[in-house]
């Protein structure tokens, strides 16, 4: 598939991009540019405390609060104008939370090497599972706003961990950008809850990053087995930050999904 071919035959749609932990809507800049060039509409939302959102990450205590910017977006949107949601990494929780509340406004949800949690799962549950696979997060930092005797309230990736285990295949200039713009990520303890009637009515697609060292392929496949999506795509050569390492291939996948799902 080529971008030129899709520029001629592709359907235009509205993509809503949801960033992962410690990032912001800015991280999609390469993919957004490619989608706009072939006529799509794109909204890149900053979650609470992400990107330029001023919320203090250590004071975000619930998934509902973290997801509020996305909830506001969908609340204001007419139900007849369906979008394709695209979530990266921890953004899979935001997708799941939103699918349950606005199923009639979402044509498809695309999980890009993202958490695809079962109902009742918390972020801490899935982070612990990732930790048990990768061993540790190196020079990354957990913050304890309420004291070390309590659970961590936020998290930030370390520069060395990012370079070697998160974005090892990404261009150096994107790593510099990430270092400059990365923010603390709130560790909410609230579980995501959803139903077959709402969440289950939205078509789900999973995008596997083949060289992801954080969400290793086996972990991505495990989520797809436990909570089967309708379609699975693979991106060869991609690290965890697909948005930096393989933006063209990701854009091609999204354009193909728009042709199928709308």
Can you describe what's shown?
The chain is of the alpha/beta class. 37% of the residues lie in helices and 16% in strands. It has 11 helices and 9 strands. It has helices at residues 3-9, 29-37, 63-66, 68-75, 91-101, 123-134, 159-166, 172-181, 217-226, 242-245, 247-261; strands at 14-18, 41-45, 83-88, 106-112, 141-143, 154-156, 185-186, 203-209, 231-235. Strands 2-1-3-4-8-9 form a 6-stranded parallel beta sheet, sandwiched between helices. A 3-stranded antiparallel beta sheet has the order 5-6-7, with no helix packed on it. Strand 8, helix 9 and strand 9 (231-235) form a beta-alpha-beta unit. Helix 2 crosses helix 11. The protein is globular and about 50 Å long. It starts with a helix and ends with a helix. Residues 4-9 have low confidence and may be disordered.
Write the layout of secondary structure elements.
Blueprint: H1 3-9, E1 14-18, H2 29-37, E2 41-45, H3 63-66, H4 68-75, E3 83-88, H5 91-101, E4 106-112, H6 123-134, E5 141-143, E6 154-156, H7 159-166, H8 172-181, E7 185-186, E8 203-209, H9 217-226, E9 231-235, H10 242-245, H11 247-261
Parallel strand pairs: 1-2, 1-3, 3-4, 4-8, 8-9
Antiparallel strand pairs: 5-6, 6-7
Helix pairs in contact: 2-11
């Amino acid at each position: 598939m080529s971008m030129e071919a899709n520029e001629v035959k592709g359907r235009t749609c509205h993509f809503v991009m949801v960033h992962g932990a410690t990032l912001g809507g800015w991280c999609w800049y390469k993919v957004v540019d490619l989608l706009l060039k072939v006529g799509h509409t794109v909204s890149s939302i900053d979650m609470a405390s992400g990107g330029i959102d001023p919320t203090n990450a250590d004071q975000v205590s619930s998934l509902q609060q973290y997801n509020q910017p996305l909830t506001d977006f969908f609340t204001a949107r007419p139900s007849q104008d369906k979008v394709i949601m695209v979530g990266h990494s921890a953004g899979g929780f935001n997708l799941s939370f939103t699918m349950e509340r606005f199923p009639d406004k979402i044509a498809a949800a695309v999980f890009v090497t993202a958490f695809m949690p079962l109902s009742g799962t918390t972020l801490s549950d899935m982070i612990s599972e990732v930790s048990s696979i990768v061993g540790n997060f190196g020079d990354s930092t957990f913050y304890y706003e309420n004291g070390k005797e309590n659970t961590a309230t936020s998290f930030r990736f370390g520069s060395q961990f990012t370079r070697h285990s998160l974005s090892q295949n990404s261009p150096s200039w994107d790593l510099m950008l990430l270092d400059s713009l990365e923010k603390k990520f709130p560790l909410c303890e609230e579980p995501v809850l959803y139903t077959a009637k709402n969440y289950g009515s939205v078509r789900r697609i999973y995008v596997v990053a083949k060289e992801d060292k954080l969400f290793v392929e086996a972990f991505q496949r495990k989520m797809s087995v436990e909570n089967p999506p309708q379609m699975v795509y693979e991106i060869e050569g991609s690290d965890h930050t697909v948005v930096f390492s393989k933006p063209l291939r990701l854009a091609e996948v999204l354009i193909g999904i728009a042709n199928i799902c709308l």
